[in-house]
Design a protein that fits this description.
Elements (H helix, E strand, L loop, with lengths): L5 E5 L2 E4 L3 E2 L5 E2 L7 E2 L15 E6 L2 E6 L3 E3 L14 E3 L14 E6 L2 E6 L3 E3 L12 E3 L14 H16 L5 H17 L9 H23 L6 E5 L5 E7 L5 E5 L3 E6 H5 L7 E8 L3 H4 L4 E2 L2 H11 L3 E8 L3 E6 L11 E6 L9 E10 L5 E4 L3 E7 L2 E6 L4 E11 L3 H27 L6 H23 L6 H34 L7 H25 L6 H22 L13 H14 L15 H13 L1 H11 L2 H35 L5
Helix pairs in contact: 1-2, 7-8, 7-13, 7-14, 8-9, 9-10, 9-11, 12-14
Length: about 675
């Protein structure tokens, strides 16, 4: 009565065979019980076969086999447990244990193999490379036709040459074909012929078509080029650098004299490799003619920064191409958001950006309608040294270094205010200087300071109005810039000395004699007033910060007011003749303008109120000469008395002249003979 897979022990009991068990245990006493197989490959037993091996359960037992792609060193097919495991990788390629098609090459991998297209071959439609079932066909030259809608005999001749290269192409001749193609492009760009007469949209459409077509053709043909790398320089200076690797890792650097590129090899290969991985850069220095007058689109963040810097909206960007146009192509065609980014070093002639100019890294961005323009989004300029600019980009395209000149929308009213204000200041400064020189009653240390300040401001304003735009001759421009730098530095230095003198005078108001202050200022003012600006201009090519002098003068002014507040009541009538409080207040306030304190308004020209502050800054500081003449000449009683004397003298001289003229006429008439 014992069930299957058991043996009889006695009349009332049976025992299951090894590898079997029943629900009641090893001994069966009920005819309804059965002996079932124990699965040693599953918990709780879970026999371990070791690495690269699998457990196989059978009725009443188990055995171990090596995983697919592995085999025992002894050549046996099964073993019992982990201690007998000698599984190792089986090289299916060398042992011919693979079904790879004869158009592919077998590549062994750990535990498996892949079938990769031979060099110069590509997968058939519907197949993928590097699969066990890959089937390939011989590589062909990619289809490249003229851009639709462009009528040009020169361009048609170029594409006839391309079609001839396509017909004669074989994978073995890939290197020669690449060189012939580059030379054909050089011939087209060297003498573009009727391409230069095309409308701008058509010309830029042609550029986009040429760049994208070249990238696709070179990406394809490079896979058939023998060797791990290839460089070529055409007679016209175009450079090609290629790196081709079956398996690569880490960073790779490629390029020649026009450009160098550093990228992570994982970026070049992409998510899934298809044959050998290609990375290449083509540098063409002959595309200026076709790229002329293309627009430049700035990154929105960069444009906002520039508008904040120049405190005015940009209404145009002019550019000049400095470097070769460098086209980058990889096996990986998904290059819109790269991580890590790609670094470039572009060579170009030495250039020093001028006012509202900068060196920028730009790329050629194709438009949906086939056209194109320069853009900067996703590219950053890391720095420029001598004749090289380093850039970093998060995408790939055709790149170049441009010298950009930003056209800022200036307020014409500010120009009008500047010219009118400075013209009035010139007249007032001239009158003030003549007054300080000729009016002996007011000549003292303070007058000497204001005379020198008036002369420096007069010359600086005159040069600014007459020669500011003389930039045609480089040497003349440099001389004018140096002179303006010196004169305005000297003006601010004299303002500083005037502020210092005002402070020292106020501090010594309780003392009737100012001899110590006068001696100190006379020794100090000329060496400092003219020597310090000369030293700064001589040793520094950087822009001097005039606001610092203004801030120091403002500090002197505030301290002077504080001293005056506590000591005005103690003023000796011999020290101060100002009895009119309103006049004193007005003159004190006017010192803000005379000492250049209002130049601090330049610091406030930021944010939403920048435009308003620009008006305040321009109006107040352009009339600084008017303030000097008003306070130290027109509001000075001594000067007004002297003006009265001069006016009386002029009137007397004029009257005497008229009397003399009348007397002369009378005598002349009397001397004539009487005629009847």
């Amino acid at each position: 009565w014992c069930p299957r897979n058991s043996v009889c022990i006695n009349a009332i009991a049976c025992r299951c065979h090894p590898g079997f068990s029943s629900w009641s245990g090893e001994i069966i006493t009920s005819p309804a019980d059965s002996c079932d197989d124990i699965n040693e490959c599953e918990p709780p037993l879970a026999v371990s076969c070791g690495k690269f091996a699998d457990c196989q359960n059978v009725d009443g037992s188990h055995y171990c086999t090596c995983s697919p792609g592995y085999g025992l060193v002894s050549g046996a097919t099964t073993f019992r447990n982990e201690s007998e495991n000698t599984c190792q990788d089986v090289d299916e390629c060398s042992s011919r244990q693979h079904p790879c098609h004869n158009s592919t090459a077998c590549i062994n991998t750990v535990g498996s193999y892949r079938c990769r297209c031979r060099r110069g071959w590509t997968p058939l439609p519907g197949f993928r490379d590097n699969q066990n079932t890959t089937v390939c066909e011989e590589m062909s030259f990619p289809t490249w036709t003229p851009p639709p809608g462009i009528q040009s005999q020169r361009l048609s001749g170029f594409f006839e040459r391309v079609q001839d290269l396509r017909r004669r192409f074989t994978p073995a001749s890939a290197q020669d074909t690449v060189q012939d193609l580059i030379q054909s492009v050089d011939e087209l760009l060297k003498a573009p012929g009727d391409l230069e007469t095309l409308a701008l949209p058509d010309r830029h459409h042609t550029v986009t078509h040429l760049l994208s077509g070249l990238e696709e053709v070179l990406r394809t043909l490079a896979k058939a080029v023998p060797g791990g790398s290839f460089t070529y320089q055409s007679p016209e200076g175009t450079e090609l650098s290629l790196v081709i690797q079956e398996q690569g890792h880490g960073n790779v650097t490629l390029g020649q004299s026009h450009a160098r590129m550093l990228l992570d090899w994982a970026v070049a290969a992409g998510a899934a490799g298809s044959g050998p991985t290609v990375a290449g850069i083509l540098s063409n220095p002959n595309m200026q003619k076709l790229l002329a007058n293309a627009s430049l689109e700035l990154d929105p963040e960069r444009q906002a920064e520039l508008e904040e810097t120049h405190e005015s909206p940009l209404y145009g960007v002019q550019w000049r191409l400095l470097s070769a146009v460098n086209s980058v192509f990889l096996s990986n065609t998904n290059t819109t958001k790269l991580d890590p980014k790609v670094t470039f070093a572009f060579s170009h002639p030495p250039e020093k950006p001028g006012t509202r100019q900068e060196l920028i890294c730009a790329f050629w961005k194709g438009a949906d309608d086939g056209g194109g323009h320069w853009a900067t989004t996703g590219c950053w300029t890391l720095g420029s040294w001598n004749n090289s600019t380093t850039c970093q980009c998060s995408h790939l395209s055709s790149f170049a270094v441009l010298m950009a000149h930003y056209d800022v929308q200036e307020d014409p009213m500010l120009d009008v205010i500047t010219y009118v204000g400075l013209s009035l200041s010139l007249l007032c400064l001239l009158l003030a200087a003549l007054t300080f020189l000729l009016c002996r009653a007011i000549q003292n240390t303070s007058t000497s300071l204001h005379l020198q300040l008036s002369l420096c401001l007069f010359l600086a304003h005159l040069l600014f109005l007459t020669a500011m735009d003389r930039t045609e001759i480089t040497v003349l421009c440099a001389v004018i810039a140096g002179a303006l730098h010196y004169l305005y530095l000297a003006s601010f230095t004299w303002m500083l000395l005037a502020g210092l003198h005002l402070f020292l005078t106020a501090r010594n108001l309780t003392v009737v004699s100012y001899s110590s202050v006068s001696r100190f200022m006379k020794k100090l003012m000329f060496p400092v007033g003219y020597g310090v600006p000369a030293m700064i201009v001589a040793i520094s090519a950087h822009k001097h910060d005039h606001h610092r002098t203004s801030i120091v003068n403002l500090a002197f002014f505030l301290m002077t007011l504080w001293i005056l507040k506590s000591r005005l009541s103690l003023l000796n009538s011999d020290v101060s003749t100002l009895q009119n409080t309103r006049m004193l207040t007005f003159k004190a306030t006017a010192q803000l303008f005379i000492l250049g304190c209002t130049w601090c308004l330049g610091i406030l020209q930021v944010g939403p109120a920048a435009h308003v502050m620009a008006y305040f800054f321009t109006i107040i500081n352009s009339l600084q000469g008017v303030s000097i003449f008003l306070v130290y000449c027109l509001l000075s009683q001594q000067v007004r008395e002297q003006y009265g004397k001069w006016l009386k003298r002029v009137r007397k001289t004029k009257a005497d002249s008229e009397t003399f003229t009348l007397s002369s006429r009378t005598m002349s008439d009397a001397s004539r003979p009487f005629m009847v």
